[in-house]
From TrEMBL:
It comes from Streptomyces mobaraensis. Coiled coil: none annotated. InterPro entries: TPR-like_helical_dom_sf, TPR_2, TPR_rpt. TPR repeats lie at residues 77-110. SMART domains: TPR. Keywords: Repeat, TPR repeat. The keyword Repeat applies. The keyword RNA-binding does not apply. PROSITE patterns: TPR (PS50005). This is Tetratricopeptide repeat protein.
Length: 122
Protein backbone atom coordinates (compact mmCIF):
# COMPACT_ATOMS: atom_id res chain seq x y z
CA UNK A 1 0.00 0.00 0.00
CA UNK A 2 1.36 3.41 -0.96
CA UNK A 3 2.39 5.89 1.73
CA UNK A 4 -0.23 8.64 2.19
CA UNK A 5 0.71 12.00 0.69
CA UNK A 6 -0.44 15.49 1.67
CA UNK A 7 -2.83 15.34 -1.29
CA UNK A 8 -4.25 12.04 0.00
CA UNK A 9 -4.86 13.65 3.38
CA UNK A 10 -6.73 16.55 1.78
CA UNK A 11 -8.87 14.08 -0.17
CA UNK A 12 -9.53 12.08 3.01
CA UNK A 13 -10.45 15.25 4.92
CA UNK A 14 -12.90 16.37 2.22
CA UNK A 15 -14.33 12.85 1.97
CA UNK A 16 -14.78 12.77 5.75
CA UNK A 17 -16.72 16.05 5.55
CA UNK A 18 -19.02 14.48 2.96
CA UNK A 19 -19.45 11.32 5.02
CA UNK A 20 -20.39 13.35 8.08
CA UNK A 21 -22.89 15.35 6.02
CA UNK A 22 -24.29 12.01 4.76
CA UNK A 23 -24.74 10.83 8.35
CA UNK A 24 -21.85 8.35 8.34
CA UNK A 25 -19.81 9.58 11.30
CA UNK A 26 -17.98 6.28 11.77
CA UNK A 27 -16.75 6.38 8.18
CA UNK A 28 -15.62 9.97 8.72
CA UNK A 29 -13.67 9.01 11.85
CA UNK A 30 -11.89 6.21 9.97
CA UNK A 31 -10.70 8.61 7.29
CA UNK A 32 -9.68 11.27 9.80
CA UNK A 33 -7.67 8.89 11.97
CA UNK A 34 -4.92 8.62 9.34
CA UNK A 35 -4.99 12.36 8.64
CA UNK A 36 -4.56 13.16 12.34
CA UNK A 37 -1.91 10.47 12.80
CA UNK A 38 0.16 12.26 10.16
CA UNK A 39 -0.83 15.81 11.22
CA UNK A 40 -1.67 15.71 14.96
CA UNK A 41 -1.75 19.50 15.28
CA UNK A 42 -4.30 19.97 12.48
CA UNK A 43 -7.16 21.54 14.44
CA UNK A 44 -9.55 21.48 11.47
CA UNK A 45 -9.21 17.70 11.22
CA UNK A 46 -9.55 17.34 14.98
CA UNK A 47 -12.65 19.53 15.03
CA UNK A 48 -14.21 17.48 12.25
CA UNK A 49 -13.34 14.24 14.07
CA UNK A 50 -14.86 15.66 17.28
CA UNK A 51 -18.07 16.42 15.38
CA UNK A 52 -18.06 12.89 13.96
CA UNK A 53 -17.57 11.37 17.41
CA UNK A 54 -20.45 13.50 18.71
CA UNK A 55 -22.69 12.41 15.84
CA UNK A 56 -21.81 8.78 16.59
CA UNK A 57 -22.66 9.34 20.29
CA UNK A 58 -19.04 8.67 21.26
CA UNK A 59 -19.08 11.44 23.83
CA UNK A 60 -15.78 10.86 25.68
CA UNK A 61 -13.67 10.94 22.50
CA UNK A 62 -15.70 13.94 21.27
CA UNK A 63 -15.03 15.78 24.52
CA UNK A 64 -11.29 15.03 24.31
CA UNK A 65 -11.10 16.27 20.71
CA UNK A 66 -13.04 19.47 21.42
CA UNK A 67 -10.75 20.12 24.41
CA UNK A 68 -7.70 19.49 22.24
CA UNK A 69 -8.93 22.06 19.72
CA UNK A 70 -9.59 24.58 22.50
CA UNK A 71 -6.10 24.14 23.92
CA UNK A 72 -4.76 25.38 20.58
CA UNK A 73 -7.60 27.76 19.70
CA UNK A 74 -9.13 29.07 22.95
CA UNK A 75 -11.12 31.63 20.95
CA UNK A 76 -12.89 29.03 18.80
CA UNK A 77 -16.54 29.81 19.55
CA UNK A 78 -17.89 26.76 17.73
CA UNK A 79 -15.59 24.40 19.66
CA UNK A 80 -16.81 25.91 22.96
CA UNK A 81 -20.43 25.55 21.86
CA UNK A 82 -19.93 21.96 20.67
CA UNK A 83 -18.07 21.02 23.85
CA UNK A 84 -20.99 22.46 25.81
CA UNK A 85 -23.44 20.34 23.82
CA UNK A 86 -21.24 17.29 24.43
CA UNK A 87 -21.20 17.95 28.17
CA UNK A 88 -24.99 18.38 28.26
CA UNK A 89 -25.43 15.12 26.38
CA UNK A 90 -23.04 13.49 28.88
CA UNK A 91 -25.28 14.58 31.76
CA UNK A 92 -23.03 17.46 32.89
CA UNK A 93 -25.08 20.58 32.10
CA UNK A 94 -23.51 22.67 34.87
CA UNK A 95 -20.06 22.26 33.25
CA UNK A 96 -21.53 23.10 29.86
CA UNK A 97 -22.78 26.58 30.81
CA UNK A 98 -19.24 28.00 30.96
CA UNK A 99 -18.52 26.85 27.41
CA UNK A 100 -21.88 28.07 26.11
CA UNK A 101 -21.19 31.50 27.63
CA UNK A 102 -17.69 31.64 26.17
CA UNK A 103 -19.09 30.71 22.77
CA UNK A 104 -21.71 33.47 22.98
CA UNK A 105 -19.15 36.02 24.14
CA UNK A 106 -16.83 35.13 21.26
CA UNK A 107 -19.58 34.98 18.64
CA UNK A 108 -23.06 36.27 19.55
CA UNK A 109 -24.92 33.96 17.15
CA UNK A 110 -28.51 33.45 18.31
CA UNK A 111 -28.04 29.72 19.01
CA UNK A 112 -24.90 30.40 21.07
CA UNK A 113 -26.62 33.18 23.03
CA UNK A 114 -29.71 31.04 23.67
CA UNK A 115 -27.57 28.16 24.98
CA UNK A 116 -25.61 30.55 27.25
CA UNK A 117 -28.72 31.34 29.30
CA UNK A 118 -27.36 34.70 30.41
CA UNK A 119 -30.68 35.44 32.09
CA UNK A 120 -30.02 32.68 34.66
CA UNK A 121 -27.71 32.97 37.63
CA UNK A 122 -24.65 30.79 37.80
Amino acid sequence: MAEPTPETHVIDFRSAERLLDARDPRGAVKLLDSVIASHPENTAARLLRARAYFAAARLRPAEREFQHVLEREPDNAFAHFALGRTLVRSGRPEEAVRHFRLAAALDPRPDFVAAARFDEKG
